[in-house]
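Q&A log
Question type: sequence-to-structure
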Amino acid sequence: MKIFMTGGRGFLGSVLLPVLRAAGHEVTILTRMTTSPAGTDPGVTWITGDPVSPGAWQDRLLDHDVVINLAGASIFTRWSSRARRRIYESRILTTRNVAGVLNSPARRVSLLLNASAVGYYGFHASDTIDELRPQGRGFLAEVTAGWEKEALRAAEAGVRVVLCRFGVVLGKGGGAFPRMLAVFRRGAGSRLGRGDQWVSWIHTLDLAGALVHLMKIPDMNGAVNLTSPYPVTNAELTRCLNRSLHKRVLLPAVPGFMLRMAWGPFADTLLKGQRVVPERLLRSGFKFCFPTLAEAFTDLVGPT
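Response status: OK
Response body:
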């Protein structure tokens, strides 16, 4: 199949691209770069454009079978008003520009895999959350709901739309994990706040595999949680990563007030949690390569 991808040069796109190519798909990547990377695979086409702005790239998008929309600014920053606007617009405007052209009679696209996030559900204590849970409250819930609303415009044009609600993605090439690993390698890894907040996570390779899996299921649409079937508490994550690195927990927990002083409202994403399970993904027959955190850390940092 021919696949068009936004966010292809980012952390998730760089993991997904070789998986798609290994499966024999041709991939077109939208990038702000004006020149293609050196040594480009002939099965990969790079086109220049800004997904936040309408442009000629939208016409190129129509001649593909699948669109994978991964674009979105990182949320791992202090949420100033400027950062909030960047987080919001990078998702809403990009998705509006992608979905808005899919009502064209010239379109070939039959599937939109649109990135989303478990932030949709808001923060919860220990409730187990599947895809039937309604929208929660807070900045991330509002952003994610708006993001998904824009993606669903494509469904009105007859495109199958899958809202891929990502958990915390663990991988070597980006996201939160390299920062966390650097702290733990120094022996400074300890739980955050009380440590009883749930972390819904997924290994990058399982996320990539799940996206390819969803492409193959013609009756799958709507929200799908892309998380491990075994979420953990922050305290469990702390113990597991320290064990993987052969470190002892030497420092007391990081107080919540210190995180809020350093990170502002973003600190709530570290101190509050969600116990999300991938109910629909499991029922569809997907098999995880790294279902448990210990297996994921063995791959990412070495055996315990």
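Response note: The chain has twelve helices and 13 strands.
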